[in-house]
Amino acid sequence: MLTADSHVHSEWSWDTGGPDSGARGTMVATCEQALRIGLPALIFTEHFDVEEAWRAGTEEFPPAASQHINEAGYLVPPPLDVEGYFGAIAECRRLFPDLTILSGVEFGQPHLVEHRARQLVDLSRFDRVNGSLHTLRVGPDRAEPITLYRHWGPDEVMDAYLDEVPAMLASDAFEVFTHLDYAVRHWPVEQAGRFDPRRFEGQFRVALRAVAESGRALEMNTRRLSSWLPQWWTEEGGQAVSFGSDAHVPTALAGGFPEAQHMLEHFGFRPGRRPEDLWTRRPAPRR
Ligand SMILES: [Zn+2]
Ligand SMILES: [Zn+2]
């Protein structure tokens, strides 16, 4: 059985939807897709970026996202319409009673804006809060790795990303650390060759150990999932994982899940009672 997709976007995310997403929006279409593929549960974790703007070039982002880049070259994400979002969740629960539909957010850089975020939104209303590190400091500003690769050396970007992971754990506003390999997504293959995780193994392990010691789960982001991530997570003491496709279109829902679930079983992780539960592993017996 497929486990819940715990990282899904709909038209309530600022980089999703738009004019081509259809009149009914992608949330309804994504629920229809879940029924079609036999996915029992999903969590709509919309982007939640608070009072932040970051440096960006329009050439780096798809139109749905680049429409939010201003003339000064900053991406200014619009706020999440929390009430509209919860209304759509309620409507989908009514339309799809056989599907478990949970609420959530993908909270960007929680360590920088947690206080302000809590003033704006009662985070306890959401079933799941994923924490994401999307931007890194560059002088007085911040920017995404995809932008930084155009200005910095590839190793510099990767090192800066992994260095900031432990700092994000100062916030207790989130329970799952998403796509810890986010900076790998846009690794400049033409300039730097194929990404070799072993070159950054030490830094990855330090970051993974910090997440594990904080008691959080690590997301298995199935956009790209290689065995080194669950292997190092397990070896650094990780006890829980979630599975997320990071779908921004309905057809991407639960992409790669059968393979990912199989891989995590190999590393000793097992599903919980409900499909939306985190997968956990028993600690190795003491010798
Ligand atoms: Zn993300
Ligand atoms: Zn996402």
From TrEMBL:
Residues 1-12 have a biased composition (Basic and acidic residues). This is PHP domain-containing protein. Residues 1-24 are annotated as: Disordered. InterPro entries: PHP_dom, Pol/histidinol_Pase-like. Gene3D superfamilies: Metal-dependent hydrolases. It holds the Pfam family PHP. Residues 5-222 form the PHP domain. Transmembrane segments: none annotated.
